[in-house]
Specification:
mainly alpha
């Protein structure tokens, strides 16, 4: 029984808009009626890839392939190749993509583009150059032009940067132009053309990043701070403590991926990336009208159901047997009351980095233009950063959340000492492998994927000094607060 046409159309709409959680929930509803529906399994796999749940994706896509109605469907092998690559089986992914291209599949342009991207990320540069040299219709696609410029960057970064900037400032799909632009920003930064990099990033944010509702943001944080100011939870916890959940909290680009990768090297710990579970809890509480003041009004069974949803999706088969799961959702700091109410017993690892270095990295990085709309301007970045610094530590203390506060600069200065602190919080012994996160074979899907494949280093400390014009006196209080925090750690 295929999904009703209206559900199929709604699934496609949600997938096209990148509304992965909503699409996943709709696909689950379809599968509850017909567990063998291939379209719903395909949608589930696509959502799981986007949300970083790669083993879930692999299983879902295998079930989609088993549906005879999808036999020969070009979408299934393409998304299986995507999952395989992210699971570290890039050779198998390359074989699938080459087969699609050879067969002239309707998505051969997509297959070409992803194949070139894999070859780039796996260091197979000669094969990448050969594909570009061979030409083909895929190079007429805006994505193909971006990838061809990327291939040229290995020989001439300045020429590649100019071509990518031209694409970014031209016409066409906003997503492709945004990707091209931020690739150019990275190259310009590496070339030392800092003003040009900064200005291009500003252009991209103004033209492709969504508006940010700073009024609603301020109101939410102000209400949370008012409640936290009581010095204790304003709700009764109605669920049992969870075991083995650690959450990395802090601003994006503050070292959260480095810390997660260090922990993932421990034999008893598994990093689960930027899992969507915490935002899903926040969305559920808002939908129920319980956020944040009314959390204590929720019935115990409803709280237990929300807790189960988080835990069931977090504990996938690939992390079975691990004592601790490390979730580095970038939204945790804004949802600490939800953590305290629904995941009591969770440990929090809070990361903080020089606000100027963080701001530069945020402004120059290609975050989701809707989810992270506050990266739109340096002023909004400072607004959000000020809220995070003023709110997070007091909230963790008032809510009784066991935590460690870690400063990025101190972590890279003394990784062994900080590994010992974190392990003490989790109740596990330090393991030497934690000090070599670059040896981790697990695929990193965040913007830090290249940095964490290098040994722990101080290379990004003080990066803001390349962009001194971006920081006037309005940043002084944040900087002073960070320096004071360093002195106390």
């Amino acid at each position: 029984m295929p999904p009703a046409p209206k559900h199929r159309a709604e699934l496609e709409r949600l997938l096209a808009r990148g509304e992965w959680v909503e699409a996943k929930e709709l696909a689950a509803a379809v599968l509850a009626r017909n567990p063998r529906d291939g379209e719903a399994w395909l949608a589930t796999g696509r959502c799981a890839i986007a949300l970083g749940r790669l083993r879930v994706a692999e299983d879902a896509l295998a079930k989609a392939a088993a549906d005879r109605a999808l036999a020969g469907d070009h979408r299934v092998p393409f998304f299986r190749a995507v999952a395989e690559h992210y699971l570290g089986r890039s050779s198998a992914a390359i074989d699938r993509l080459r087969a699609l291209i050879a067969a002239g599949a309707p998505n051969s342009v997509d297959a070409h583009c992803f194949l070139v991207d894999i070859l780039h990320r796996t260091g197979r540069r000669e094969e990448m150059r050969a594909l570009v040299a061979a030409g083909g219709p895929w190079l007429a696609d805006l994505r193909g032009r971006v990838l061809a410029a990327r291939a040229r960057a290995a020989d001439d970064r300045a020429v590649a940067a100019a071509e990518l900037e031209s694409i970014a400032r031209g016409a066409g799909d906003p997503g492709a132009r945004r990707n091209a632009g931020f690739e150019a920003v990275t190259l310009l930064d590496a070339l030392g053309e800092y003003r040009r990099a900064w200005d291009l990033a500003g252009f991209l944010h103004q033209s492709t990043t969504a508006p940010f509702d700073d009024y609603a943001f301020r109101e939410d944080i102000a209400l949370q701070r008012q409640l936290v100011g009581r010095g204790k939870p304003w709700f009764e916890v109605r669920v049992p403590p969870v075991e083995g959940i650690a959450l990395v909290a802090g601003m994006p680009r503050s070292g959260t991926t480095l810390l997660e990768q260090m922990l993932d090297r421990h034999s008893e710990v598994a990093g689960i990336g930027e899992y969507e579970g915490i935002p899903a809890l926040g969305n559920a509480l808002q939908h129920l009208g319980a956020w944040p003041r009314g959390i204590g009004m929720l019935p115990a069974e409803q709280c237990a159901q929300l807790q189960r949803l988080y835990l069931n999706d977090a504990r996938t088969p690939d992390v079975a047997g691990k004592r601790w799961l490390v979730d580095k959702s970038l939204h945790t700091w804004r949802l600490l009351p939800a953590v305290a109410a629904l995941l009591p017993g969770a440990r929090i690892l809070h990361m903080a980095r020089d606000p100027r270095d963080t701001a530069v990295s945020l402004h120059l990085s290609n975050f989701n233009g809707r989810t992270f709309a506050w990266t739109r301007t340096p002023e909004l970045i400072r607004l959000v950063m000020e809220a995070e610094r003023e709110h997070t530590l007091p909230a963790m203390q008032a809510l009784g959340l066991a935590h460690e506060a870690i400063v990025y600069e101190d972590l890279v200065e003394d990784p062994a000492g900080h590994a010992a602190r974190v392990c003490a919080l989790l109740g596990v012994a330090v393991e030497p492998a934690m000090l070599a996160p670059e040896a981790n074979t697990r695929t990193v899907l965040t913007l830090s994927h290249e940095q964490v494949r290098r040994p722990i280093n101080k290379g990004s400390i003080g990066r803001w000094q390349n962009y001194p014009w971006a920081f006037d006196g309005s940043w002084d209080a944040l900087v002073a607060g960070h320096q004071a925090r360093r002195a106390k750690m």
